[in-house]
Specification:
Two copies of one chain form a homodimer.
Chain A: H1 3-16, E1 25-26, H2 28-35, H3 39-52, E2 55-57, E3 63-65, H4 70-94, H5 97-108, H6 110-115, H7 119-137, H8 140-160, H9 164-183, H10 186-212
Chain A binds a DNA duplex (30 and 30 nucleotides) through residues 2-4, 27-29, 37-41, 43-44, 60-62.
Chain lengths: 220, 220
DNA sequence: TGTGGAATGTGTGTATACATTCGCTGCAAG
DNA sequence: CTTGCAGCGAATGTATACACACATTCCACA
């Protein structure tokens, strides 16, 4: 594999998993030595992260890992609403019923997964749903736009993580979306998506609120 | 100015103005010599064009300027609908009435511009409207997404260019959008945007149809 | 002691040389 | 005549060296 590709994947992982925390400065020499490659492919990786919005230029000198403020979360979800509703609409119009019936069956079984606290398996199922929706939407521009958004959403998982009751509710909401798409009902699919994202945002904001005002008022 | 920046701007211009036509292969050595810079900054410019979607990797070797098919136009407008309706909604909520009243006055005067065939001035006015809407939407993610779309739309101007009657109708549609935003009516702003984009798409597709089936059946 | 200027050091931007891989062409064999 | 393999060549991927800009620090002078 190309060195620039490995560097991009590694840095991206590190940022999404919060191993590189927001505000961390990424020097070219420093990172190229850490990853064992030269500056040229590293710069290519950093340029991609910059266009992803995962790092930002800080006043001429060096790149920093971007932060995710509460305000950012709300803005992120405004964009997500616009894109995913449109994708849901188009997916409902072009879907292969067999594919989405199969996904519906899996979502009906999802509560079982969650009772076993197998969150990773659930996230994997959601990822497959996203992929199926992307494919069914049959619109590469829409897919490109939503794909550029997903890394930022992955970073939010750390906030909403391990909230089992929310995941259970989310599974029910996902099921409704999948059933609407399977049935080819584009307006229901869009509305169900709207509802799901509204509930997700509400849950995340409530959790973020709790994290930023812990019991003893000590900021993180 | 940095060499990589100049190279990016130059190549982007060349593509948007159709001086580099779709399908043109961009070799690294060839282009770096043409622009008088070395391969390193040129590669950075090409990487940015790649993430913009203006060029695409062609089977491992070399980058080509992307084409814009009729199907692409429809997909582009699906995404544009989703984004610009959301921007219109949020702009209506956060707008400064003074700014949009002033823009409304300019759009009322727009038919005068168009009668004088001053299309460039009209496009400049639309660009200022876009900028005002972006700012008023107060959502950087939304703005980033729509900005990544605009280069592709600029390329379409060559198809719809010099259609005075369509521009006159577009000016009326824009006026309604601006008035709705100025009044803070977000649902009207969204619907007016929907109507405008629908009419624009219809016009472009009709023109594209004519271009692809000219009077004597000779393809372009 | 404080302020200004110069020098040094770190980091980014660019160029170029080297390595590697992929594609094309030509020849041979079936 | 077609197909497959091998060798060659060109274009991409990577490393490194050099240039320049900015910032910080230290020393000198007021």
């Amino acid at each position: 594999m190309r060195a620039s590709e490995r560097a991009y994947a590694a840095l991206r992982e590190d940022i999404l998993e919060w191993r590189l925390e927001p505000g961390t400065v990424l020097g070219e020499v420093e990172q190229s030595e850490r990853l064992g490659i030269s500056r040229t492919p590293l710069r290519e990786a950093l340029a991609r992260l910059l266009s992803d919005g995962l790092v930002a230029a800080q006043g001429g000198r060096g790149l920093v890992v971007t932060t995710v403020s509460v305000n950012d979360i709300a803005q992120l979800f405004d964009l997500r609403q616009a894109l995913e509703q449109q994708i849901a609409r188009q997916a409902a119009q072009h879907r292969d019923p067999v594919v989405f019936e199969a996904l519906a069956a899996e979502f009906r079984a999802a509560p079982g997964l969650l009772e076993r606290s197998d969150h990773a398996a659930y996230y994997e199922l959601v990822a497959r749903l996203d992929a199926a929706m992307d494919a069914a939407s049959a619109n590469s521009y829409l897919v490109t736009a939503v794909r550029s958004l997903r890394p930022h959403l992955v970073r939010l998982r750390r906030i909403s993580r391990d909230n089992s009751s929310r995941l259970l509710a989310a599974a029910r909401e996902h099921l409704l979306i999948v059933e609407a798409v399977a049935a080819g009902d584009s307006e229901l699919a869009a509305s169900a998506t709207h509802v799901h994202l509204h509930q997700s945002l509400t849950s995340i904001l409530a959790t973020a609120q709790m994290l930023s005002t812990p019991p003893e008022g000590i900021p993180a």
